[in-house]
Amino acid sequence: MSHYCDLAPGHPFHGPYHDHEYGFPVADDDTLFERLALEINQAGLSWLTVLKKRDAFHDAFEGFAVDRVAAYGDVERARLLADAGIIRNRLKVDAVIHNAGVIQHLRDEHGSFHAWLEAHHPRPHADWVGLFKRTFRFTGPEIVGEFLMSSGYLPGAHRDDCPVQARVLAAGPAWARASETTRPAP
């Protein structure tokens, strides 16, 4: 089975995402929300489909501004479901809007979505899945795993021999910080 590090380099859509975003730590709440929304929309489809529609998603969801999306009502929902540039799945659209409201609540309790993630890190994948299922909509094991890998909370985005992995490690992803604190002293 090939790894994303084999497929992505040089590809017009996968390449830039692989080389500059995938696995790098993310602290900005709107960017974290975008990652979660894109992973939700990828369910049952290829990641390439989502990457090709990414600009349209960004426009349709107004830059993934959490507060704007959380305020969406029936008019915005109908607009999204009529937008041929994005994936027009009612369950996914509803989940993204609902999850924006959840992130607002997490910000009220923790200061930010990022702070909520940091407060729950580290934990095994299965525990993350349980936490996300209790907190968000449309977040199964694959979505949660990819979201956490893409934003630096779980390892596995890149192979150790991938040239991007050194840059990811230099950026200090949460999973690497956690492994450093649990390593025995030399």
TrEMBL record:
InterPro entries: Adenine_glyco (IPR005019), DNA-3mA_glycosylase (IPR052891), DNA_glycosylase (IPR011257). It comes from the Bacteria. Gene3D superfamilies: Hypothetical protein, domain 2 (1.10.340.30). Pfam families: Adenine_glyco. It comes from Halomonas halophila. SUPFAM superfamilies: DNA-glycosylase (SSF48150). PANTHER family: DNA-3-METHYLADENINE GLYCOSYLASE 1, DNA-3-METHYLADENINE GLYCOSYLASE I. This is DNA-3-methyladenine glycosylase I.
